[in-house]
Design goal:
By secondary structure, the chain is mainly β. It has one domain: TolB, C-terminal domain (Neuraminidase). Helices cover about 0% and strands about 35% of the residues. The protein is built from one helix and 28 strands. The protein has a five-stranded antiparallel sheet, with no helix packed on it. Strands 3, 4, 5, 6 and 7 form a five-stranded antiparallel sheet that branches. Strand 8 and strand 9 form a beta hairpin. The longest helix has 10 residues.
């Protein structure tokens, strides 16, 4: 994620927001054919009729740099604040005491550091997991327990550290954790930071940086490796890796109906990309190309190899934004016209797009221009979607 202070310089370089639909560009002629992202079988993700527009309904405010919103399989909303707190919204009201406050052990001084996401266990809702940068600036994936006496209070002393990943720089920390339909915990890791991946983590399977990890948090200590992880039998690779070649997969999500994985990867200086893995069509091991490729384009080279890489379904250049914010497929019941549409945005541009599958590929359709710094979307237990304004500290609900 490219957050507020870092983006101020980038915004000066960005051109005006373009509102034309964008189809993924073809690879350069000199590049060999790459592996295309799998297409959806049967019913498309988005309905055949494009959505006309959406609006944002204000829900709550006064949060300190909100980075994520999720649920505990009930009517409560859990809002993650970058400084190291989690607050609860219930019936539109913010509970006076935070659910969790670990701000003393969280380093949030960097633009992309802090408490970045939270995921409740899908069957044992008294267990939850967080992703944050510790006081040394390294990524920490930890499990906490909900207080037995108070479901609105976490036991801050119950931390069990699953994984600590050294970060060579302060940016590109990834940040998303989410349980997949298979019950495993997925962890998005950036390439370690700086610019251009100077240490080559994206194409190095011996490191956990620049990768999507897949962990079994219900067996062994601190976790087990799922037996079908793609590199489990490769001694030169970390067995936790599910996919690699990523720059900074700040936000990804699973379609709760189909199980499809949508993963937005923040680009370098030119291209933002959105990747899709159709449920059942992959056994993992995808290489998304960074740092040979930025989107479908050679990075810092006139000619590059793209053989064996998986290309995004959509990309856009920095005339339209500078830091893609991945979202969700709407599967709620309140707004049937939104059903099946995938919504995403850009932290710099503030436009909200939806995704449309057409006869010749995928197209993003602009639905709403905002002046928000949209750091994340969120989903409640019923499948309704929310938008988080990082700079303004406000939470909105997405509505037609």
């Amino acid at each position: 994620m490219a957050l507020r202070n870092f983006l101020s310089a980038l915004l000066l370089l960005s051109a005006c927001l373009g509102l034309a639909g964008c189809r993924v560009a073809a690879p350069a002629a000199e590049m060999p054919a790459a592996t295309p992202a799998p297409s959806l079988p049967g019913e498309p993700t988005a309905p055949a009729v494009p959505l006309a527009s959406v609006q944002l309904q204000w829900i709550a405010g006064n949060f300190q740099q909100p980075t994520y919103l999720t649920h505990a399989f009930d009517d409560r909303l859990f809002v993650v604040e970058q400084v190291g707190r989690v607050s609860i919204l219930q019936n539109g009201q913010r509970l006076p005491a935070p659910f969790l406050d670990i701000s003393r052990q969280v380093e949030s001084g960097g633009n992309e550091q802090g408490l970045l996401s939270l995921a409740f266990h899908p069957t044992d809702h008294r267990r939850f997991f967080v992703n944050y940068t510790d006081q040394q600036g390294d990524t920490r994936i930890s499990e906490f327990a909900v207080s037995p006496q108070n479901p609105d209070q976490a036991d801050a002393n119950s931390e069990r550290v699953l994984l600590t990943i050294a970060q060579p720089y302060g940016n590109h920390n990834g940040g998303q954790i989410q349980f997949g339909p298979d019950g495993y915990l997925y962890v998005g890791m950036g390439d370690g930071g700086s610019g251009g991946d100077p240490e080559g983590h994206g194409q190095n399977k011996a490191t956990l940086l620049g990768a999507l990890l897949r962990l079994n948090v219900d067996q062994s200590q601190p976790y087990a490796i799922p037996p079908d992880n793609p590199f489990i039998n490769d001694p030169a690779s970390r067995p936790e890796i599910w996919a690699y070649g990523l720059r900074n997969p700040w936000r990804f999500s699973f379609d709760r109906l189909t199980g499809d994985l949508y993963m937005a990867d923040v680009g370098q200086n030119a291209w933002e990309e959105l990747n899709l893995v159709t449920a059942g069509a992959s056994s993992g091991g995808e290489n998304y190309g960074w740092n040979r490729l930025e989107g479908t384009h050679c990075f810092n080279l006139p000619v590059c190899r793209s053989a064996g890489t998986t290309l995004p379904i959509v990309e856009y250049d920095h005339n339209e934004g500078c830091s893609i914010t991945g979202g969700y497929v709407y599967r709620g019941e309140r707004f049937p016209s939104l059903s099946g549409h995938y919504f995403f945005s850009d932290y710099c541009g503030g436009v909200i797009w939806n995704l449309q599958q057409t006869g010749d590929g995928w197209q993003k359709n602009p639905l709403l221009e905002t002046d928000l710094n949209i750091a994340s979307f969120g989903e409640d237990a019923a499948g309704e979607l929310y938008v988080l304004d990082h700079a303004g500290g406000d939470i909105y609900q997405l509505q037609p």
